Amino acid sequence: MSLDPKIAARLKRNADGLVPAIAQQYDTGEVLMLAWMNDEALHRTLTTGRATYWSRSRQEFWVKGDTSGHVQHVKAVALDCDGDTILVKVDQEGAACHTGDRTCFDADQLEIALG
Amino acid sequence: MSLDPKIAARLKRNADGLVPAIAQQYDTGEVLMLAWMNDEALHRTLTTGRATYWSRSRQEFWVKGDTSGHVQHVKAVALDCDGDTILVKVDQEGAACHTGDRTCFDADQLEIALG
């Protein structure tokens, strides 16, 4: 089985066949990380309940938590209005970030300096 | 003035010189939309307090709300752990989505069908 053709028809992929996927903690609303999915990663995410990405660096599927234990249990998945972004609401076990931070956005806050 | 070189040095851009930027409502945590920034759009976002993107379709800067009135007032900006995604926390006036929906992810919920 592969991705539902009705969903596949709505996806707008980049030149590498990928769509950015935002992972968000479903209850607190924290934005955890951004990763990338191809059609098969989205299919696996929808049918296994485990957030599954395409690793651009390793060029392989990446079931979040398989190595780290920091599993993302999928609660809801939505496409945006033009089909070029995926929002995955998950229940994140432990840290989402490989650095050990809860989210990938915790460490590098930029200063806003209104002119 | 252009983007602080210390920030520019941490940014990882795609082949078009762009970085995905996630816009999130700062108080409710809603993920509003994903758009794209180049260095100058990020600089303007940090220094004007108005979320500013690079429109890939129009190939021009896009100050969110200039046409629609649906301004994004910038509250906080962060880079992710590897500098290839930006999280912009904003106070969104009205609808974030051009369809009139509050967020770009409201209309197309995908069914999770665990095997």
TrEMBL record, chains A, B:
Pathway: Amino-acid biosynthesis; L-histidine biosynthesis; L-histidine from 5-phospho-alpha-D-ribose 1-diphosphate: step 3/9; Amino-acid biosynthesis; L-histidine biosynthesis; L-histidine from 5-phospho-alpha-D-ribose 1-diphosphate: step 2/9. Its main location: cytoplasm. Residues 33-105 form the Phosphoribosyl-AMP cyclohydrolase domain. One of its GO terms (molecular function) is magnesium ion binding. Its cofactor is Mg(2+); Zn(2+). Binds 1 Mg(2+) ion per subunit. PANTHER family: HISTIDINE BIOSYNTHESIS BIFUNCTIONAL PROTEIN, PHOSPHORIBOSYL-AMP CYCLOHYDROLASE. Belongs to the PRA-CH family. Homodimer. This is Phosphoribosyl-AMP cyclohydrolase.
